[in-house]
Design brief:
The structure holds 2 protein chains of 2 kinds.
Chain A (H helix, E strand, L loop, with lengths): L1 H10 L11 H33 L3 H11 L4 H12 L4 H26 L3 H9 L4 H31 L12 H10 L2 H28 L11 H6 L2 H10 L1 H5 L1
Chain B lengths: L1 H27 L14 E5 L4 H16 L3 E5 L5 H10 L4 E5 H8 L8 H11 L4 E3 L9 E6 H7 L14 E5 L10 H8 L3 E5 L4 H7 L4 E5 L4 H4 L2 E3 L12 E6 H17 L2 H12 L5 H11 L4
Parallel strand pairs in B: 1-2, 6-7, 6-8
Antiparallel strand pairs in B: 3-10, 4-10, 5-8, 5-9
Helix pairs in contact in B: 2-10, 2-12, 4-5
Classes of the chains: A mainly alpha, B alpha/beta.
Chain lengths: ~250, ~300
């Protein structure tokens, strides 16, 4: 525990506000790379996931892609991309790596969100004369939102942990303390940096857990928790149909 | 519905197994995870850093010992100093090619020795009881500050002291830890009065120097790219860097028995010879055992 005490002492030392890598700046860099990467990944994966989820086409490909994508070793990729793109494009190489890491989770969230909607709800919408666009806009997007946000949550978590690698190619962030600390044998610094990443990840996860709750449309069952998803089958799905505004406005 | 959920489950399972695969990939490439074989009687365990040039020297030691009837076990690529020193001190690894200055600084961070002989003498005092420094070779592989030939010509640079005349901001590139090393930005300020910025360029330091994202780069003096990339190594009149000659570090138990063989290797290893060995690895893509065998053959030590 002594090491933890030292790490916290390091983390909260006034020295962290000065020097060439002040902690607030490192957190800023870390968050910058996390959000830029997840945002770009969302721009790619959400439309693609919705297309797959709405049409049901290309589903197997999306599943395979999502599975395989997560196995891409980020460390190798970032170094490879820096060498391929050239050292003047390090931020680009880093963002591409993180985007590739974030896409699978968001893609899976987007299409599984649409797929998890009971076909009866969609059929009901179609029966009331909704156009495909209206079905998509008013049924699929709101009902699929909790799973999409869950996908984003898992993407953010993976990316915020992996942005640590940005420091390896000289882009700063919280990983710098870890990567610099190892050869210097400054264990308080290494653990302090790791704790900072952990805290940041927990905070972001908490924020997204909240967003996930807020994303559930009124009347729809909460299906954000993994444990409840499998248990809730017929009863709540029936409720979902009964309470859904489209059904009521009919 | 449940079938769909199962498919989603399969997607997550596939993703999870992907992560597991990635993790096992990491662990199997970790040399410290290999089943450890305890040193057998009569066999010498030779180790090396995770640095190709160091591994070549270690392979030369190994082959020289084998040529003289020793049984050798190789534990190469054991990471950096912090990772392997404990194994060396415990006797798990018995013979290791090291660098006098860097090793001295590891054991004595406040050392004031900078010349080759002073460093070697100080190292012998600083080493723990169980370790012995055999004869050092004339080959050096030490930190050095380099600039591009163009940059050197523009500002007429020959030594670190000349950098004071440069009128653009100076940025030093190197491994992240260089920022905190005594010979890093602090040392440049103290000994040469230079104010330099720092960029953690890590593995791409030479590429960064050539691309211009930094204008001074820390490159090991035996790096072939100093020649192939046309870099200029700046002289160090104030002794910022410690001399760092290749030196065999042996476990005290085996030091006497291997001394003759290994000291002969050290005597034959020259600075130019070390660069040539490195070139065979980086440019000619020769395998480490082949490079070592050819060198021993050429030096009549096999």
């Amino acid at each position: 525990m002594n090491l933890f005490a030292e790490a916290f002492a390091w983390l909260f030392s006034p020295d962290r506000l000065t020097g060439s890598h002040p902690l607030p700046a490192a957190i800023g860099e870390h968050l910058f790379y996390t959000f830029v990467s997840v945002a770009i990944a969302a721009l790619i994966a959400v439309p693609l996931g919705y297309l797959v989820g709405h049409t049901g086409k290309g589903r197997d490909l999306a599943v395979a892609l999502a599975g395989a994508g997560r196995a891409v070793p980020s460390f190798g990729l970032i170094v490879l991309l820096v060498l391929v793109l050239g050292v003047t494009h390090k931020p680009l190489a880093a963002v591409i790596t993180f985007v590739l890491l974030a896409v699978p989770s968001i893609l899976a969230g987007a299409y599984s969100g649409l797929e998890s909607i009971d076909r009866a709800v969609i059929d009901a919408g179609r029966a009331t004369g909704m156009t495909e666009w209206q079905i998509f806009r008013r049924i699929e997007v709101p009902l699929g939102l909790p799973l999409l946000v869950a996908g984003m949550r898992s993407a953010v978590l993976q990316v915020v942990a992996t942005v640590t690698l940005a420091a390896y190619v000289g882009l700063g962030g919280l990983g710098y303390y870890i990567i610099q600390g190892v050869p210097l044998r400054r264990y308080d610094q290494i653990l302090g940096g790791a704790l900072a990443v952990t805290i940041l990840a927990l905070v972001l996860d908490g924020v997204f857990a909240l967003l996930e709750r807020l994303a559930v449309p009124p009347g729809a069952p909460r299906q954000s928790r993994k444990s409840s998803r499998r248990e809730i089958q017929t009863r709540e799905e029936m409720e979902q149909i009964e309470h859904y505004p489209v059904e009521q406005s009919n | 519905m449940s079938a769909r959920k199962k498919k989603v489950g399969i997607a997550f399972a596939a993703a999870a197994s992907g992560i597991v695969l990635a993790l096992t990939g990491c662990s199997s490439s970790d040399p410290l995870d290999e089943p450890s074989v305890t040193a057998q009687a009569g066999s010498i365990v030779v180790g090396s850093q995770a640095y190709y040039s160091n591994e070549i020297v270690a392979e030369i030691y190994a082959q020289a010992l084998e040529a003289n009837g020793f049984t050798v076990e190789r534990k190469f690529n054991i990471g950096q100093r912090d990772a392997y020193i404990p194994s060396l001190e415990s006797g798990e690894v018995q013979l290791f090619p090291e660098y006098t200055g860097n090793l001295l600084q590891f054991y004595d961070a406040t050392t004031t020795a900078t010349t080759t002989d002073d460093v070697y003498a100080a190292l012998q005092t600083a080493l723990p009881d169980g370790l012995v420094a055999l004869e050092q070779s004339s080959a050096t592989d030490q930190d050095s500050y380099n600039v591009t030939a163009d940059f050197a010509a523009t500002y007429n640079l020959e030594s670190l002291a000349d950098l004071a005349n440069v009128d653009v901001p100076l940025t030093l590139g190197g491994a992240p830890e260089l920022e905190e090393r005594p010979y890093g930005p602090t040392g440049l300020k103290e000994l040469y009065g230079l104010d330099v910025g720092f960029s953690a360029t890590g593995d791409t330091t030479v590429e960064d120097l050539v691309a211009g994202t930094v204008n001074i780069a820390n490159v090991y003096s035996a790096d072939p790219r100093i020649q192939t990339e046309n870099l200029v190594t700046l002289a160090d009149p104030e002794g910022l860097f410690l001399a760092s000659n290749v030196v065999p570090i042996a476990n005290a138990d085996i030091a006497d028995s291997v001394a003759d063989v290994i000291n002969a290797v050290s005597a034959a290893l020259t600075p130019e010879g070390l660069v040539a060995l490195n070139v065979q690895s980086t440019d000619d893509q020769m395998s480490t055992p082949d490079i070592a065998a050819a060198w021993l053959e050429a030096n009549g030590l096999n």
